[in-house]
Amino acid sequence: MSKKYEQNPALIHILIVDDEKSIRDVFQMAVDHAGYTCSVAESGDNALEIMKKTHIDVVVTDIQMPGISGLELVERIKGIYDSDVIVMTGFVEDFTYEKIIELGARDFIHKPVRLNELLVRLKRVLNERELLAERNQAFEEIKDAYLDTVNRLVLAAEYKDEDTGDHILRMSRYSMLLAQIMGLSADDVQLMLYSSPMHDIGKIGIPDHILLKKGKLTDEEFEIMKTHTTIGGKILADSKSKILQSAEIIAITHHEKWNGKGYPQGLAGEDIPLSGRIVALIDTFDALTSRRPYKDPYPVQVACEIISNEKGKHFDPEIVDLFMNNIDEFLKIKEKFSSPEDNVSISDFLWSERDMERLSI
């Protein structure tokens, strides 16, 4: 492992915070001699002002200072910056190591501080900092590879349905936005972003002559089409991934209806998982306003009228209201991730034979 702080220590910026000038001066000389870039602050307020203007890698701060204490400074730093903090104090009886670490400090030094100890602690914190950065980078690369694999699997199903990657992007952004509007947690919003595009992954198991049929489906064909929900559930089942677990629920339940007349289980009301209720509306809106093998895109006004008319029947009434009250935000997503050919005016709009089937399929 290459240690960047050893190869070019001047790139590392250390901030010394202490109300005693003599301590600041001695520590700054030692840090400068070690080759690091060093700044000093006489108070917590002064330190925060410096950090607003300059990236700081490690802050070394006293605890007992006028104004903002060292502990309060630790809390403020960890809430805003990615800097690591080493805390110094001579009042050992008042501050336990566990308490200081719990607040977010990386290390703790007893005063009086020996200069060689300060430099050893700095090296240790910098080494841990670099290890953490490398671990985070590796994690991000693994996550990106995982999400790329999921997206390619989704894209395979969408291409079979003659859809484009734009549909995946719209579904994920629509679902994320609606989840945010509904006040879901940040984790649940992220789950909706990544799992919602897999709602129709089961269509990969539907014969092309049914999936791509331009005319109305026969009753038998419609029953086969409905199995894409359970096929999708089987594809995604038994995963330890929270994203795939969420996607499994969505795949199975996004065609359930608020009034209990949906499929495959005939669930009603709040017995339908929230993620399924969200995607039920979002998928319908996107399908209605997009070009499909069997239909031209609907004008947004017509699509919204259909969804409003299905309030309390097909869709959760609360979700319909939130969607309609924020329609301008959804249209921004549609505009960003749609082709010009998907825009159609009321005067140019024609119903197709299979139009109303969208509310069932």
From TrEMBL:
<dbReference type="InterPro" id="IPR037522">
    <property type="entry name" value="HD_GYP_dom"/>
</dbReference>
<feature type="domain" description="HD-GYP">
    <location>
        <begin position="142"/>
        <end position="339"/>
    </location>
</feature>
<dbReference type="InterPro" id="IPR003607">
    <property type="entry name" value="HD/PDEase_dom"/>
</dbReference>
<keyword id="KW-0175">Coiled coil</keyword>
<feature type="modified residue" description="4-aspartylphosphate">
    <location>
        <position position="62"/>
    </location>
</feature>
<feature type="coiled-coil region">
    <location>
        <begin position="115"/>
        <end position="142"/>
    </location>
</feature>
<keyword id="KW-0597">Phosphoprotein</keyword>
<protein>
    <submittedName>
        <fullName>Two component system response regulator</fullName>
    </submittedName>
</protein>
<dbReference type="InterPro" id="IPR052020">
    <property type="entry name" value="Cyclic_di-GMP/3'3'-cGAMP_PDE"/>
</dbReference>
<dbReference type="Pfam" id="PF00072">
    <property type="entry name" value="Response_reg"/>
</dbReference>
<feature type="domain" description="Response regulatory">
    <location>
        <begin position="13"/>
        <end position="126"/>
    </location>
</feature>
<dbReference type="GO" id="GO:0000160">
    <property type="term" value="P:phosphorelay signal transduction system"/>
</dbReference>
<dbReference type="Pfam" id="PF13487">
    <property type="entry name" value="HD_5"/>
</dbReference>
<dbReference type="InterPro" id="IPR011006">
    <property type="entry name" value="CheY-like_superfamily"/>
</dbReference>
<dbReference type="InterPro" id="IPR001789">
    <property type="entry name" value="Sig_transdc_resp-reg_receiver"/>
</dbReference>
